[in-house]
Amino acid sequence: MTRPAHPAMAAMLAATLLPALLGGCARSLLPEPVASPALFALSGETDPRAATAPAATARTLIVNLPRAAPGFDTARIAYVRRPYEIEYFAHNQWVDTPSNMLAPKMVRAIEGTGAFHAVLGSPTSAIGQFRLETEIVRLQQDFSTTPSQVRLTLRAVLIDTATRKVVASREFDARVDAPTDDPYGGVIAAQQAVSRLVAELASFCADSVR
Predict the structure, then answer these.
(1) So what's the architecture of 56-209 in CATH?
(2) What is the pTM of this model?
């Protein structure tokens, strides 16, 4: 026959076990911590030798911040598996929107052509002879192909500020195979796509005013 526990001993046992039980219950009610997403930047550096061209006339170009088509005005990294459906990686994203990352690279690439005395990003109080308007049509990793492919499309319009007339317009499209079919492979391909596209954009702006 089991003898009943002494009241003092029972109280001590309860005082010992109760915090552990309450702690376990509290932990079970708390949400699981969410892992921070991996962050990636678009470098897309152009060939530094392009910056050796001598400065040209007093032409000034204002490069407006690129607009972005719906679905691409976000820091989330987009991909597609079938036409018309845009999806985003859950645990991988850009450190900033593609528009904010592309703008300074466009300025540096155009400066390197030597076709303009000054190339300024907006916002700025300066008034240039020319203004460059751009729109990111798409920046996505396409998994409907093998290997997957990053596609970057940019629409550009060069405008004469004084007359407000379009000097030239063009749509650029860069497609680069990803080295691996995962988000990081897409990031690597995106760097190459950016390098290729901004170099073509810089040549387009220089040729249009010469």
Answers:
(1) 3-Layer(aba) Sandwich (3.40)
(2) 0.79
